[in-house]
Batch of 2 targets.
Target 1
Amino acid sequence: MEDTAENRAIYGLIGRGISYSFSASYFNNFFERNGLNGHYQNFDISTIEEVKKVFDTPQLRGCNVTIPYKTEVIPYLDQQDEESKAIGAVNCISFKQGRLTGHNTDAYGFTKSLKDQLKKEDHAALVLGATGGAAKAIIYALNALDINVITVSRGENSDFTYESLDHATVRHTPLIINCTPLGTYPKIEQAPPIPYEALNSSHFLFDLVYNPEVSTFLRYGKNAGARIENGYNMLVYQAQRSWEIWNSLC
């Protein structure tokens, strides 16, 4: 088939306020390096109802989904795979024979990014922002790794609120994962409100935020001697898995 804009496969990211996202540059560089006739773009929508127009985009072959629509997008899909059903969130949508299928590649990306760095002492994890779509995938992955999960959020549907989270719990929970967008560019001074003075060198802080490279959350951990990891590798792994899904179902 001739390589033209008219027959170019379109992929994209559905979210709100996503100009910072790495996905478009990552995939478009991938297409160029591999001589593929594809284009990836941001679909920045203000409400989930606008996703119906996104799905009408000509030549659309697949989408990723980010904050705040990983759960809200589900009613607009025709079906989900079993893993995304178990997680309760979708961050990847495949298109096949006119049907929209939801998948979740966040759990895969997180597990692959985290697994090689885990120590046997990393027996429990605090999940910050535990009610969001990203956190659902993280909790699913942690459970699969037999890591005890302690949830923290602003609401009442978690083990702790930020106000009730105490120093002792932080001190004795080695793995702390930020699933909130706090600290993302341009509001890089923000961080989840936890007692950072309880951190020490036995902790491992993992931040799903990847821009900036060292968020305020991670900087607190680094200053305390903790191991730190941002979300970049997780995003690369989940993007690679998304590409595998889109192509395996074509």
Target 2
Amino acid sequence: MSHACCSHDHASASRVANARYRRVLWLALLINAAMFATEMIGGMRAGSVSLLADAMDFFGDAANYAISLLVLGLALSWRARAAWLKGLSMGLFGLFVLGRAAWAAGTGQMPQPLTMGAIGALALLANLATAVLLYAWRDGDANMRGVWLCTRNDALSNVAVMLAALGVFGTGRNWPDLVVAGVMAALAISGGWSVVRQARQELAHASKENQPQAL
């Protein structure tokens, strides 16, 4: 009887935690979607590679939060598959940033530092708010960890964008913007690899649990 009560309490606590996490993901989704639109428009007007890259990152995060909402409460294998997809998207984002930076270096495009700094500061506030919301789930499964890593990397990227704006303003050249783009690419690729690796481990664990036991 006592065991049944404990199981019931555990299930109730799990449902409450999932409901809370779902609300947090919805808030994060709305914040990231709004910042995607803001940075895309601002990045185009400012001619900044790092802002455009950060805008695409916000778009990817919004999509990732949507995926997380879909798989929340499903079996570990499905959550791990979603995390694998998110990790892959983080790595592809890193490659996109590298390509965009190479194009800007070849064309000599000069960004507007004041616009970069203002939008970078706004993006930092948005990501810090999201990071605070997600902090309690930073050590969860691969899916939750992937969400947390995306938000953490975004906040670091925003600081880098603001430093790049200062560098462009001080030097009158575009190389600080390009350096930041490289840093953002490295964060995306390393974070994506970490999530993919943990997701593969969880998939292997789930596969072993689903195998029939020998008599």
